[in-house]
């Protein structure tokens, strides 16, 4: 990474703020949102199973459904270009063959490696305790969520991660299987109408050790 790239990246990181109020006139096209999500999904995941799933809530009807579930975040819901619900798919291994086959097609993985990996992983996932699977899915979905916010910033948009909503109701409200899709967070996205506040961070000597 050269100096210019480093500076650009740091501007994205240091310029990010959690925004509470957006310009309601700003919309994000499906094409650009698709690009933002595609770039976000370059985040890493355990054995590349990519367990993240996104629900982009942008229509008046969708936001009306969401409103009762975000009582303490109404301003973000009403003014943002979209509210992105991030879920973790507990059945993510269902896509293993598709993922690895595509890797073979693109010359990124030999076919024999694919078959060996699928055989091993099939045994692994069939005996994986439910709590371990869920923990892994939540970690991977957290990684993609942070990347999504940074990608959005690089596209010129602002975001706010939201954990305070009715997680036990959101999947069913939008017709998803609540036993399969684990709610991770909501991310509001749009153009800030009011600049988010800067905040402080603990110094590194308080949170890191070298051995």
Which segments are poorly predicted (pLDDT under 50) over 5 or more consecutive residues? none
Helix content: 40-55%
- CA-CA gap between termini: 28 Å
Radius of gyration, in angstroms, nearest whole number: 19 Å
Q: Going across the major beta sheet, what is the strand order?
A: 1-2-4-3
* Secondary-structure-derived class: alpha+beta
Structure, briefly:
By secondary structure, the protein is of the alpha+beta class. 47% of the residues lie in helices and 14% in strands. It is built from nine helices and four strands, in the order ααβααβαααβαβα.
Overview of the structural elements:
It is built from nine helices and four strands. By secondary structure, the protein is an alpha+beta fold. The chain is 47% helix and 14% strand. The protein is globular, with a radius of gyration of 19 Å. The protein has a four-stranded antiparallel beta sheet, sandwiched between helices. It has helices at 3-15, 30-40, 60-66, 74-79, 96-105, 111-126, 130-154, 167-173, 204-207; strands at residues 52-57, 82-89, 158-162, 181-190. The mean pLDDT is 93.
Task: Give a quick set of tags describing it.
211 residues; alpha+beta; 4-stranded antiparallel beta sheet; 9 helices; 47% helix; 14% strand
SSE arrangement:
Elements lengths: L2 H13 L14 H11 L11 E6 L2 H7 L7 H6 L2 E8 L6 H10 L5 H16 L3 H25 L3 E5 L4 H7 L7 E10 L13 H4 L4
Antiparallel strand pairs: 1-2, 2-4, 3-4
Helix pairs in contact: 1-7, 2-7
């Amino acid at each position: 990474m050269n100096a210019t790239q480093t500076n650009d990246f740091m501007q994205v990181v240091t310029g990010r703020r959690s925004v509470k109020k957006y310009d309601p006139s700003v919309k994000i096209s499906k094409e650009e949102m698709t690009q933002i999500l595609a770039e976000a999904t370059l985040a890493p995941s355990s054995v590349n199973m990519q367990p993240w799933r996104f629900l982009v809530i942008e229509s008046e009807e969708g936001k009306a459904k969401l409103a009762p579930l975000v009582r303490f975040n109404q301003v973000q819901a009403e003014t943002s270009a979209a509210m992105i619900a991030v879920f973790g798919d507990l059945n993510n291994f269902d896509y293993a063959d598709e993922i690895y086959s595509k890797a073979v097609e693109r010359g990124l993985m030999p076919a024999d490696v694919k078959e060996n990996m699928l055989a091993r992983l099939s045994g692994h996932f069939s005996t994986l305790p439910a709590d371990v699977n869920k923990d892994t899915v939540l970690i991977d979905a957290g990684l993609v969520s942070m990347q999504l916010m940074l990608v959005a910033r690089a596209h010129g948009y602002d975001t706010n991660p939201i954990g305070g909503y009715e997680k036990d109701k959101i999947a069913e409200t939008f017709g998803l299987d609540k036993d399969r899709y684990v709610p991770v967070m909501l991310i509001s996205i749009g153009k800030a109408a009011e600049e988010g506040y800067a905040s402080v961070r603990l110094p590194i000597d308080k949170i890191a050790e070298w051995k």
